[in-house]
Design brief:
mainly alpha
């Protein structure tokens, strides 16, 4: 029964991913047509190889920041060095970016990449811990972006209501996360135990329910055992977003004769981050990222096509680092099929 439920949900997600990807490709084609291929090519040529090298470096610094934050999120007696987490983050980003439902296996990919250093459960829990810090800081970043957008751009009433609902939703999510950690709610393990007692999926839950409990305890125990790491990790996650704003600012400075504002760069990055979260099921967030950038660009009177050009250039640097991630996977004998199989076994246990 558990297998059928998991398979049904996974198939639905796959179908949704295919439909949204096709729609994204169509939206991308429409935006390219509306802006004009000539104008996009001119913008990319203006940005140049030097500009591309700079944003490759900036993205690498963002990867470095996440890798350091992850290394600080590991529970003793286990330990991960920066040289362990850095390639693992590159691999995780690669799997997350290029395949539908990549978000479902990116965390598993990171844990598998460091499996020679820590057990899989400890690796997964440390990834989840770092992701909680990332989610916390990202939520604050999105709220600030939404509030700034409301105050800075002339919007129709429908958009104002939509953004207000978004802000309220993020605040509720933040409150839930705080309560979950402070109260140490063991939703996953208690659900596993409930299923086990009713003879549902007993074969997988015989040992899996214990692993899930350990997984939760490792996450919750971290916050009580390492309170001094809270601010450094949050600071690193904030730096990750600040580097994203700097990247947008740099791209705009090369695409336009006018000096870009930090506020516009901040809003473009916050919208891009929101789209990445909402449409992660779509590889490279193709189409929707360009549409979001174009929307903000038009709201703040950027030159026509600058938003779409910005999104395309940033996709180029994602493809570059994705290629590096795939090469690292090949070097380590990892495969997407193997990661999917590992992820299914981990998912089936709960």
């Amino acid at each position: 029964m558990l297998d059928r439920i998991s398979s049904t949900h996974l198939n639905r997600l796959k179908l949704a991913g295919i439909v949204l990807t096709i729609a994204g490709v169509g939206l991308f084609a429409y935006l390219v047509y509306s802006v004009g291929i000539g104008e996009l090519v001119e913008g990319i040529e203006r940005f140049g190889l030097v500009g591309f090298a700079v944003i490759l470096l900036l993205y690498f610094l963002r990867i470095v920041v996440r890798a350091i934050a992850w290394s600080l999120s590991v529970y003793e007696p286990y330990r991960l060095e920066f040289r362990d987490t850095l390639p693992a983050v590159v691999i995780g980003e690669a799997t997350s970016s290029i395949i539908p439902l990549g978000i479902l296996i990116s965390g598993t990919a990171k844990a598998v990449a460091v499996r020679h250093r820590v057990p899989l459960v400890a690796g997964l829990s440390s990834v989840a811990t770092e992701n909680l810090f990332y989610s916390l800081v990202t939520s604050v970043f999105l709220i600030l972006g939404a509030l700034t957008f409301l105050r800075s751009a002339p919007l129709e009433e429908g958009w104002v209501l939509t953004i207000d609902v978004l802000i309220a939703g993020i605040l509720l999510l933040l409150a839930f996360m705080f309560l979950m950690v402070l109260r140490q709610w063991h939703f996953a393990s208690e659900t596993c135990e409930w299923l086990y007692q009713r003879c549902i999926g007993r074969r997988f839950l015989e040992k899996g329910r214990m692993d899930v409990r350990l997984f939760e305890n490792l996450i919750y125990g971290f916050y009580r055992r390492y309170p001094r790491r809270f601010l450094p990790i949050c600071g690193l996650e904030a730096l990750y977003h600040a580097l994203g704003v700097l990247e947008v600012f740099y791209v705009l400075s090369r695409l336009s004769d006018a000096f870009p504002s930090l506020m516009t760069s901040f809003l473009l990055e916050s919208v891009s981050r929101l789209i990445t979260i909402m449409f992660k099921i779509v590889p490279l967030t193709i189409g929707v990222d360009e549409a979001g950038a174009q929307f903000v660009g038009e709201a703040f009177a950027l030159a026509a096509g600058v938003g779409v050009t910005l999104a395309i250039i940033r996709k180029g640097r994602i493809l570059f680092w994705t290629a590096i991630g795939l090469l690292l996977m090949i070097k380590r004998g990892m495969s997407l099929r193997g990661l999917a199989s590992t992820n299914e076994s981990v998912t089936e246990q709960p």
